[in-house]
Amino acid sequence: MDIFDKIKKQGDLGKYSSFAHGYFMFPKLEGEISNRMNFRGKEMLVWSLNNYIGLANLPEVRKVDAEAAEKWGMAAPMGARMMSGQTKYHEQLEQELASFVKKQKAYLLNYGYQGMTSIIDNLLDRKDVVVYDSEAHACIIDGLRLHIGKRYVYSHNDMASCEKQLERATKLAEQNGGGVLLITEGVYGMIGDLGKLKEIAALKKKFNFRLLVDDAHGFGTMGKTGAGTGEHLGVQDEIDLYFATFAKAMAGIGAFIAGNEDIIHYLQYNMRSQIYAKSLPMPMVIGALKRLEILRAKPELREKLWTIVNALQKGLKEKGFNIGKTESPVTPVFLSGSVPEATNIIFDLRENHKIFCSIVVYPVVPKDVIMIRLIPTAAHTLEDVKYTIGCFEKVQEKLKAGKYSKSEFADTSV
What we know:
about 425 residues, alpha/beta, Aspartate Aminotransferase, domain 1, Aspartate Aminotransferase, domain 2, 7-stranded mixed β-sheet, 4-stranded mixed β-sheet, 15 helices, disordered C terminus
């Protein structure tokens, strides 16, 4: 069979396929990054951006971005860092990141997804064994696919399951002469619950393993200083390798891995994704330095975030909505309904209530479950929260009345 013919035979996206692209998938949000943006010519209240601290369009951030672009352009520095792309600013950013998350050394990465995949590939050989959470992000899963050794998965945040898999991993590693790496996340970005870092750290007294934490959603949002979920839970010192991206709280591009100096030094000389990739452009590095400075100097932005988070989550719960086990800004709202009903809910929210948010359906969640994922930020207001909760009440009433199951698209009356 021709490989292209095989792809074509997989079919389309269902009865909404002609409408889906550009609306449900690959939508275009336009205008300044904020709590309100334009979608198809209409202003929307947006709850879908990971701009947690609201840094994306702060005037001082935009000024530094623009000045750095004018001074260096997007080409500098040319080449991979190992060969010709190293600068004092890349080194400065690494030093400041390491200090911020309380680790000896940090290594700057071009992208989060690519970085995590490459870290896993680089750390392990065929003798090593990995233990990981069943809800691990796709970048972790893809990194594990590169691992030619054994891996064991434990049920999400289930410490009995985790301990059982550590026992199996330890036994096999001892037989092979390898080591054990445990991978978890600080904040799980889909439903907002936290990884059991404190309980996992306690298992180090019983098992010999190293702990790698992906804290993409926790960096800048969790902890007294914003240093992440490990700081929030009081176990930052127990995290052997701390990973985070700039795409969330830093509202930028890039990532980093931090840990003991000797291990980070090893990664610098062996991570293929960095050795064979052009250095992160100077405007992004200079911009990240400014963003990190603001994270440190303006805790009131993180406090504003949590004011919005607490108001949104408290308000939703008071109105009887199920928001799961979130302990972070990520706010899921669980409803009962079918995929067509979910489609109509999103259409109604966007067209009639002017609310833009993300929706998740089967197979990511069980059948007959609809999950609306809200991302509150410091750019939102308490008025935004009040309005959104009121709209969700109307949606819930329509859903229970069966209005979303009776028409191809949502009822156009609010």
